[in-house]
Task: structure prediction
Amino acid sequence: MTNKEKFIKVYRENIKREGADKLLDHLCSSASDFFTAPASARYHCCYEGGLCEHSLNVYECLKDYLERSRVREVYGLNFTDESIAIVSLLHDLCKMNVYKPSFRNVKGEDGVWHKVPSYEFEDKLPYGHGEKSVYIASGFMRLTRDEAFAIRYHMGFSGTEDARNVGEALRLYPLAFALMTADMEASYFCEK
Result:
């Protein structure tokens, strides 16, 4: 089963709210490169299909994190399968249609510069990172407040926003903290 097929399967099995089918149709359409886009230009999953792969990795990491007994019993975190799928699969919608194939020069072990395939970032809707993903998803279906804040603040303190806002969002909306943790786990450990 391809990553695209896995994504669609997880999406359809878990996300049932009004408008979800239209969002999936959009992701599968020629207006979107979601299933072929990289997750980054130079770092994690920086290859064709990397965005879909990363989203699936975040989904698995988030499910595992939320199944921990300490997270459930001590922290009291308990979210629906639908919310888990929504925030993990859709947290990086902002990366659709922004990476363009390109080349860059890299010095090889032989000391000679070589032209290698790469990506350039070109955003025609510069609305931010998490907020852009919330904006795109909300154009198709209504998000809960927990879901919107989780997607918006999934970058945690690595973004450029005011640290007080990030800290308060993570405190008030624990799904945001859980998604941030899953995103980092996927990026730093699953996708070396």
The radius of gyration is 17 Å. The first helix runs from residue 3 to 14. The beta strands are 99-107, 113-121. Residues 55 and 89 are 5 Å apart (CA to CA).
